[in-house]
Every structure is written in C-alpha cells, then in structure tokens.
Amino acid sequence: MIPSDPITLVLSIILCLFFVLFFFGRKKNAYNLPPGPRPLPIIGNLHILDAERPYLTMHELSKKYGPVYTLQFGVEKVVVICGYEAIKDALVNHGEEFSGRPKVALLDELFKGHGILFASNDNWRAMRRFTLSTLRDFGMGKETIENKISEESDFLVQKFRSYKGEPFDNIMILNAAVSNIIVTILLSKRYDYEDPTLLKLVKMNNENVQLAGTPMAMLYNTYPSVMRWFTSISETVARNANVVHTFIRETFTNHREQLDVNDQRNLIDSFLVKQREEKPNPKLYFTNENLSHLVADLFDAGMETSSTTLRWGLLLMMKYPEIQKKVQSEIDKVIGSNEPQVIHRREMPYTEAVIHEIQRFGNIVPTNVPHATTQDVNFRGFLLPKGIQVIPLLTSVLYDKDHFVKADEFYPEHFLDSSGNFLRKEAFMPFSAGKRSCAGENLAKMELFMFFTRLLQVFTFKAPPGAALDLTPAVGFTAGPMPYKMCAIPRA
What we know:
Distance between the termini: 91 Å
Shape: globular
Number of strands: 9
Radius of gyration: 25 Å
Largest sheet: 4 strands, mixed
Order of helices and strands: HHEEHHHHEHHHHHHHHHEEEEHHEE
Strand order of the largest sheet: 1-2-7-4
Structural class: alpha+beta
C-alpha cells in the first residue's frame, strides 16, 4: 500500500534507497577489483582513452597500474589484462573461467549468441567442437587444402601481372583470394575476383569490421539506449550483416535440397547432416540461426585476419627492400622456380621469421575479442565477479619489451637465434590463446606462408614513385595498414 501522508512517502522512498544502496554496496564490496584510473561520473574513463586506437592507451596504463587493472566504460567496469605472463595465466591456466563473452550492445544485437565468435556456454562449445572437427575433415592442415591455396596463388599472380608494374590497390584482391580458401571449405566453390556476389560480401564485411572499431561504436556500446537516437551505426551494421546472412540462407537452402548424407561436400552439408540427427533432441544446437552465423563468422574471420596480414607484409617489404631481398634469396635457394609448399617452411628460417614478425608488428587484433568471466574467479590477488568484461590486450603481448627487444620496430631477428635458426617465442600470440584461440590458426599459417612466398617468388614490390609509406594502423576492430598503392614488378 502506498502511504497517503507526503512525509511518510518521502521517508519510505529514502528508506528504500538506503536498502538498495546498502545491499548493492555489500555486493560490490564482496569483490576485490584491481585498481585503475579514477573514473568520472557517467563517462567513467572514456575521456582518457585514445578514441580511435584505445589499445594504445590501455597498453600505456599498464605501466602505471600493472598487468591487471580496471577501466570504466560509462558505468560498466572492465578488467584489462596486459603482458604475456598475465594473459597466459588468464587464458590458459584459468581458461574455463575466462572463456565467456560479455554483453556488448552492438555485437549482442547482431549475433544474439549464435555462431562461434560471440556465442557462450554450451552453444559455443557445440559450435566449436563441430567447427574444429569439420575443418579437419575438409583438409585444414592437409594436402588437399594446400593444393587449393597453391591454385589460388596462381590466380593471384595472374591478377597482379595484369597491372604490368603499374600502381594498384591490393585490398579487394587479397580479400578475394583469401576468401576463396575458406569459401572452398564452406561452399565447395571458388569466385572470380570480379564476381559481384563476392565483392558485395567482402565490402559488407569490411565496412562492419571498420565500424566496430570506431569511436562511435565505443559510445554506442557504452550508452546503447541513448546513442540509438543519435547514430545509425547499429542499423548500418545490421543491414550489412543481413546481406551476408541472406546469401548464406539461400545457399544452405539449396544445399539442403541436394543433400546426400553419404557424400558431404563441405561444412554446410556436414552441418545439415548434424541438424537431421539432432531433431529429436529438445535442446537444439544445429539450428538455421547457428548455421547462418557460423558460416558468416568463419567467412569473416577466415578472410579478414589473413588478408590484413598479407597487406601488412607487402607494405613492409616495400618499406624495407633489404629484408624483401633476403627473403627472395632464401626462396630462390630453397624453392627455386617450383611451387611453394608447406614442407619448405622448415628449410626457410629467415622467411618464417619475417612472416612471424609481420604478424607481431601488424598487431592485427590489438584488443583481442572481448572475454568475460564465466564464474567468480580469484585471479592474481583479485576477486573478479562472474560476467565482468575482460580485455586480454594482445597489443601488450606482441609489443612486450621483456620478450621482444625492439618491440616498436619491424625486426625479424626477434625470431632468429645467433646462428640464424628460427626461434620460437612463447609470447608470439597473434591468434590469442586458450579455449577461445582462433579455430582456423593452422589454416591461416598455411595461407600466409604459401601466398607470401609465391608472391615474393614472382614479384618485387615497390612503392609508386614519390609515394610515402605510412606504417600507422588504420582505425577498425582489426588494425590493418592505411590504404596504399603498390607496384608488383616481375622478377627476371
């Protein structure tokens, strides 16, 4: 019953507020979050972050607050973990506890917990198990997919040759070439580089990846109920994603009509077979929604990171022609005029070191994909609550000066010993680590080696006359190079 006396009403409200503050205060005090910069009301620590490249500020803050500290985005507290030792401790030693995904507005609206990248709990486990086993079945790390990469490398060489040494932009070409490898596994299909369907899918993906890393995306994720009145970013991202998902739904509908359980041609066929087997189970994982998002996730991840790494690689070869020449000398010595094969990697320590350094220096996914705790967890003297967002900052690992002596420079010798042998570094973590590490890591390694060596076997890459080569990373969820043009000069 609501009190009729105004004084009693006010006192009742004050009493209620007291109880709310008391109980919420007790809940917060039960946890021991790591220290961090002092937040301001409403905005938290947003004012101190580099709006376009927040990972730079996060890395710098670790020098003051240590490897584990707390930031506040608006009113939400986020734990940032920095440096190889701390991140390995979280993602490997406490892998299960840090294997969740947080509720990030833009991502949550888009993925709704489906697929593999932003799914959680049992749905994520089911999708990851299926993905890993199916990628293996369809050749990841095997000769069958190696042959596909080799064939695609030939198409890529032909495309580069067509420019006859004149300047051109490589973004869409490399996107298309790398896309064709994962599309082979997903759809049993290859697209021409000018195919309008492929170009549309790549364009939609590229725009969403770029938008997800903008200051506007950060503001939207921090204040979604307010920002939806001031920005159309969520509508743009949803519209782009819908183009991709419409294509995928049409594709798997056609596959379902032609499905032969005894002749599974690709990942979609395998998923549809699992879907049939699962139907009596009331707790379904192999749904149309999961299929659509899983294929989109694998297409996006399979294209974006590898093609971005290759773009960094070609830019760095132009920037450092003496390194390009040393790679080409090793290619000539070990491979000659033959087609590059994965087996050649063990005989090419310098080329391996250069590719690893491209991945390290390129820092493709600087903030990592955000994690969340799956339960209350004691970590390095702090008690973190279940569900809190965690950023295992990959920048801080790849640029960790305790492990890379010239971390701010492009220095392939990071991965070579004093005798010139390839040197593995435990702090080399471009694919993240633990239970949420990249499912396509082995495929990506094959692609990078075979595409990179094939291109440098055939061409020498030079900047257009008078062009400045800028190594500043572009703004986006992934940190690709700024757009540039290059000249592919055929080698004699």
